[in-house]
Design a protein that fits this description.
This protein has 375 residues and is α/β, with parallel strands linked by helices. It contains 15 helices and 13 strands. 43% of the residues lie in helices and 18% in strands. Helix 5 (125-136) links the parallel strand 5 and strand 6 (139-142). The mean pLDDT is 96.
Length: 375
């Protein structure tokens, strides 16, 4: 049996945590003996242990990729556990500890995409950054082509990178009556056309453009917005909704532990990201219900949404283009239904949690066999 340790620094349940939970549900436990190292008190602990996995809690490293005091703590854990493979989700301190302990196989997942600073794309820092990644990691998983491009732009050889698109469990489909009840509980009528956005309330997620699109919509439009998530911009966005005159059209639902009822309630899934986006879990979850999407052309969005097939792709930070796309779908329910069918089909083909985990398990096994063959 292959002893595998995952290291994650999240104290709340974010995208990386949901991704890890999806993977843990599908690993073959006859092949992999898995433990998860994470901060004391993390919201993930209960969920991981409910799946039957052992957790190891740390005092340091909470919500920090790098913390010097975390390195010796990780070193002690690694020496005690003696893993064959260590897989870090961010967690630079964990990667450094794994190198110090000479763990045979060391993986790192790149969960985000953003334009790297110009200095890191040119000699000599490009070469330094690439060498650093090569030394720290046996292999690097990128969750989208955009993330892989970021890595290669900063010097990491493409041969070191494996792209494994994020996958999710399918959401339960609600019947018409239950869906109607959920919509009414949120303040939406049967005639409303509801655009949902499921993301942290941070600038890079672009919520302001959805609010501006609402303000720009035709007076006869029934467009409404369902905003699920919390973040540092919550007060500012609520104020903006009032100032734009759309407070009555935008519902702020806050953090929702289970997105299923909210995702069932919407008509179209929206992603307005202007930064960090790779392969959105919310887009995949919506696709599992047959929800078409309107997305910005940032990062991994265009790889998930094929323009005109399972949704529409618009320029990032363009609220007028967003309003036009939403108006098009609101006015053409046949197109909306056709795109929804395509979304469901693409989910089944490309974005399931089981397919993601199978690809990751193959990578682990390939690396393990090569390493043992070398020995």
């Amino acid at each position: 049996m292959i002893k595998l340790i995952h290291v994650i620094t999240d104290t709340n349940i974010g995208g990386a945590g949901v991704l890890l939970l999806n993977q843990l549900r599908h690993f073959d436990r006859d092949i992999f003996d898995i433990s998860v190292v994470l901060p004391c008190g993390s919201e993930l602990i209960r969920r991981i242990e409910a799946l039957g996995y052992r957790t190891i809690e740390t005092k340091h490293g909470a919500d920090r990729s790098f913390e010097p005091a975390a390195i010796p703590e990780y070193v002690r854990i690694i020496y005690a556990e003696k893993p064959d493979i260590i897989h870090c989700h961010g967690a630079l301190s964990g990667r450094l500890a794994a190198l110090l302990c000479r763990v045979p196989i060391r993986l790192y997942t790149r969960h985000c995409a953003y334009p790297p600073p110009a200095l890191l794309r040119h000699f000599p820092l490009r070469q330094v950054c690439g060498a650093f990644n090569c030394v720290l990691s046996t292999a690097i998983v990128a969750v989208a082509d955009a993330a892989a491009q970021n890595l290669s732009d900063t010097g990491t050889p493409r041969s070191k990178i494996t792209v494994i698109i994020n996958g999710v469990e399918p959401l339960d489909v609600f019947g018409n009556e239950k869906r109607r009840e959920i919509r009414r509980s949120l303040g939406f009528s049967d005639d409303d056309f509801v655009a949902g956005i499921f993301a942290r309330l941070e600038e890079c997620k672009g919520h302001i453009y959805l609010l501006r699109a609402l303000a720009a919509s035709d007076k006869n439009s029934r467009l409404k917005a369902l905003i699920c998530g919390r973040g540092s911009l919550e007060v500012e966005l609520r104020r903006a909704a009032v100032e734009l005159g759309v407070a009555g059209k935008a519902v702020f639902a806050g953090f929702v532990e289970d997105v299923t009822p909210y995702m069932n309630a919407i008509d179209v899934n929206v992603n307005c990201s202007t930064g960090t986006e790779t392969s959105s879990l919310a887009l995949s979850e919506g696709m599992s219900l047959g929800k078409p999407a309107v997305v910005s052309n940032y990062g991994g969005n265009p790889c998930m949404v094929e323009d005109g097939v399972n949704g529409l792709v618009i320029p990032a930070a363009d609220h007028l283009a967003l309003e036009a796309a939403l108006a098009r779908l609101e006015g053409d329910r046949e197109l909306l239904a056709r795109m929804g069918q395509a979304a469901c089909r693409l989910y089944t083909e490309r974005f399931t949690a089981s397919a993601m985990t199978e690809a990751l398990a193959r990578l682990y096994l390939d690396l393990y066999r090569k390493k043992n063959h070398e020995i």
